Predict the structure.
Amino acid sequence: MAYRRAVNILPRGKECVFSLSTFCFHKWENGIFQRGNPHGLSVRGTSRNLHTGKPFMVARLLSVDELFARRSLQDYLKKMEKEYSECLKAVNSSVTEQQGGEDEMRAKRTRVSLLGPLVQSIKQLDTRHKEITETEALLKDEDPALRELAQMERESCLQDIETLRQEILDLLVPEEEADLNDLVLEVTAGVGGQEAMLFTGEMFDMYQGFAQHHGWSFDILEHMTSEIGGLRHASASISGPQSYKWMKFEAGVHRVQRVPKTEKQGRIHTSTMTVAVLPQPTEISFTIHPKDLRIDTMRASGAGGQHVNTTDSAVRIVHLPTGVVAECQQERSQMKNKEKAMKALRAKLYSMKLEEETSKRYNQRKIQIGTRGRSEKIRTYNFSQDRITDHRISMTVHDIKSFMLGEDLLDEMNSSLQDFSNQEMLMELLGENNHEGA
């Protein structure tokens, strides 16, 4: 899709530190980067689950070369090598196994397994650095054929160094606990009356398009319309590969600036709407006891056909310990409504649990501060200037019409947010408070 970018703040190609976008950031060989952390290298207990309106602490994205030039990164890699060596020695020592407890030995074996791929990449990187030093000496040889072979070997070493450096960074940045989960999306009209409700309807349609763009399922749970066709509130269950990972940064307050359809004098109004993105837990990871629930049935209300106000198909579920409520009246079947309401309730309770855990681990300067941070606007949609600005990373793109389709432009915005989040987490891991310092 053709589009215009007003502000291009991210490095491209080889210089991008964390590469996720399939249309902007390319791997140096065979396709694109697929960032992941299958080996679990992270601060123990790290979790970044709730994303709202806090700006990122990273001022700009650093290149791979800039990151590896930082003393803090080199010190951290040496620390990981030392820990791996100590754990491996302990695991291979029968004396230590007799002296140490079973739980301690199990923990050391786990660390050896987790740190192994990282240490292997670090050693390969050191080997390539030595090889390139030896190769550069041959570039001064009098034999032209030998110099040509040395130049080819040097280019191959440089390519390997770039690849290995990226692999190391990918291993260092932890995956989020909820990244592989499905989600429940909630949109609610904010300040601005009917115009806010109209914008909320457009945003809900945009996210439905985004789900379709990625091949995810989009199952509407609630849909409360306004008098002129907008939405007061709506929610949907979204399921598909990495759906939460690609949607999590949409949570927060979205502001629109435009001339409303209801405005007769042509004045620009400012309205808001709120997006909540709740990771959907699995049955194994999160359970709810039936004794803690009160399930009410009632007659459906609003537009919807012959079943409205004639059967008790609508369902409201209350979680008694917390007072959290979930409702659904979209389906004709009471059983299906109960199933959908339960899905929404589980997502709300799971998000509360994650929020509580997150608030214990991180201070308020982090972007992941839970639902209490939704009062801050995260993005502005200015129709008269045909621009969308994300205030967390000061990124602006143009062509609102294409953006609201929920396709490539929204993908690009979320990729940029993910890149900044990854680098912020890396700086947190390295213990750097001043991101511009070494």
